Amino acid sequence: LIAKCKLCGRVNSLVSVSVNWEQSGFSITRRCIYVFLSDIVKDSYKPYSIDDSEQYHPIVKFDCRGVEPTAFDPRVGWKAVGTESGTPFDDIDLSEK
């Protein structure tokens, strides 16, 4: 997730850090002294099908506090199932643009 800090205005990649709190983790902006929460909302993952390809369809929701998301870089680890064949595809790499 690429985000803009609401205090300093810098646009940075967020760095994930795992913690043992209620949230599964938090993210910090690089070169900024402030720490902000950025997490995926529990149970917000939604499947994306061929029927959704011509319209806006959210696939995940982020809870961002103190930062404003500006871009999403999906990278690796995605899964898909063939529409007609039902063939599963695991660990899809979406990092190439």
TrEMBL record:
GO MF assignments: zinc ion binding
Key word Metal-binding present: yes
Keyword line: Metal-binding, Zinc
UniProt family annotation: Belongs to the UPF0587 family.
Record's protein name: UPF0587 protein (inferred by orthology to a C. elegans protein)
Organism encoding this protein: Anisakis simplex
